[in-house]
Amino acid sequence: MKFEAITIKxxxxxxxLSTSTVSRALRDSYEISPETKQKVLLxxxxxxxxxxxxxxxxxxxxxxSIGVLVCEIANSFFSQAINGIESVAQExxxxxxxxxxxxxxxxxxxxxxxLASRSVDGIIFSVSxxxxxxxxxxxxxxxxxxxxxxxxxxxxxxxxxxxVDNYKAAYEATTHFIKNGFxxxxxxxxxxxxxxxxxxxxxxxxxxxxxxxxLDPNNILYCLxxxxxxxxxxxxxxxxxxxxxxxxxxxxxSDKITTNVMRYCQQQNIAIPKQLGLVGFSNLDLTDLLAPxxxxxxxxxxxxxRIAAELLIKQIESKRPIKEFEDVVLATELHQRASSEKKxxxx
Amino acid sequence: MKFEAITIKxxxxxxxLSTSTVSRALRDSYEISPETKQKVLLxxxxxxxxxxxxxxxxxxxxxxSIGVLVCEIANSFFSQAINGIESVAQExxxxxxxxxxxxxxxxxxxxxxxLASRSVDGIIFSVSxxxxxxxxxxxxxxxxxxxxxxxxxxxxxxxxxxxVDNYKAAYEATTHFIKNGFxxxxxxxxxxxxxxxxxxxxxxxxxxxxxxxxLDPNNILYCLxxxxxxxxxxxxxxxxxxxxxxxxxxxxxSDKITTNVMRYCQQQNIAIPKQLGLVGFSNLDLTDLLAPxxxxxxxxxxxxxRIAAELLIKQIESKRPIKEFEDVVLATELHQRASSEKKxxxx
DNA sequence: TTGTATGCGTTATCAT
DNA sequence: ATGATAACGCATACAA
Lengths: 347, 347
Prior knowledge:
Two copies of one chain form a homodimer. By secondary structure, chain A is an alpha/beta fold. The first copy, chain A, folds into three domains: 8-50, no CATH class; 63-164 and 301-331, Rossmann fold (3-Layer(aba) Sandwich), CATH 3.40.50; 166-299 and 334-340, Rossmann fold (3-Layer(aba) Sandwich), CATH 3.40.50.2300. In chain A, 42% of the residues lie in helices and 17% in strands. The first copy, chain A, is built from twelve helices and 13 strands. In chain A, helix 5 runs parallel beside helix 12 (301-317) and helix 10 (230-241) crosses helix 11. Chains A and B meet through helix 4, helix 5, strand 2, helix 6 and helix 11 of A and helix 4, helix 5, strand 2, helix 6 and helix 11 of B. The first copy, chain A, binds a DNA duplex through helix 2 and helix 4.
């Protein structure tokens, strides 16, 4: 037995009307008599009629669904963001289809293809750590797909962007170190191509400069796989900790880098922050429950998701092409448990 | 400008063929001449033709999409599970539509409605903490919707179920306490209706019984909101810790309960495990990075998601009704960082 | 081997 | 005020 939903045709047959009459009655058309309307509406309600969204999509040439491309669902930042996207989508009658790039460029391309072939009305995307070339995005966008660039934004104009102020976040985190007496601060960043990486590294170097600390180029380290692979982070850490210019603090520039640095320190019995200072980007809701003195940079993921979804849906539903493109930049928060001092920066 | 995809009609027109010929050529039908096939395939490839899945859905009466209903996406257990579901779905050509109940019974009903109205081919669902009555599920299932009961399973037969051995998990966790010298162990569980709650409480009481420890009924505590709300957990904790029979250990029976208990202990300056033992269910990948002596019960969420998706898709694609229903029960793992002793139980 | 016609559920455009 | 028909993109039974 297959799940069969009731259709307009069924209602029409049951009530001895034509499909068009039923359709109009359901849409509360003025040309239908009150009695007929009443009859139809009642029957529809009783039989739990729902318009078939697929048929609707075919007719309207829109699917009422939006695609989301992230590197990894099971990453607290993205799952919170999806949560936000989902909430707006639900409100506006869209459903959300999720695809993952797993930080892989090829998979990113095929995922975008997949979403496009699924006839989504628009796509919210965050590029993979491997992505330095945006032509696949530009091609899709150029062909008229509605798109919003999210978190790891693309570097071309004329597209809505939603991100956080990574420069400021890294600047504040680095300043936090300096104020607490650390001076040889290493920065372990995501892949160098990424917008977020560039901005964070810039914030980091600017803070050093502004506090008259000489930048050691060896202190800027990149993870090609976004910190996803423990071994990569461990090797970077190992190399840094065994160098003669051993850092006394680490700025971990992503969720996964943060946890993997912590894991490395645990395995190597390196005490935080006694032996090594650590400030990490992290969106876990355990933020304030982690190792006592870990300071965390958290991003307003849920809010970002909501904003991205709102922009996308506005774009989808606007008749004429967008002229003004938004570049929404939100502030991060620096949480430090030990001092219970909470810095909150609004842009 | 709207995103316009190329259709079979376009190909037919361009090549001077009929739509049916093109359709057959694309499906590699034996009745089409190799030359025509060649021509069509080439043109399709060059113009990046993708069949319109919406039209296909309308025709085939299936949408190649599966719905997932969970209480909360941004919960590591469920996001990992969705990850597993997603991976299987992708492999088999399905997309995944996600809906959240937010532990609310009404929202659960409307979400199921929503998924059904979206013409999903099947639904993987985990009931909300408020759900004691399954008639809405049974009704949908009875009307022929393919469904797989996940994690918080329903108590009626003839439906595929995927869950973990909660009894054993709680039994082991409780035993772990007893072996470490705790005796007045409280169990903070999820809503009493839930299958997972009943099983966990049973495992807990069985372990006490088997070790000749008298059960104090006041030590079994329920969170109506699945631990989602901090205040609820804090009140339960506060009440317990201020009673004369103050427990010396807590078994926290969900992700959120665990983190909220930790949060409470932190706020109250209760040292774990010095002043209070704690074993918590948790699927955060920080498991081994948490407070040093927290012992964690983790669930194979990703694997569970994969299995559920496989079962569902098999059900969707099977012609005849299923006779044998699977009840897959996986083992949890008890991680204890301090002793680095790892217990692994396979069923 | 290829073309024509039909239908999936819906709505818009014509009739009546 | 209501009904008949066409169209959305595709697959397929039926014709040729």
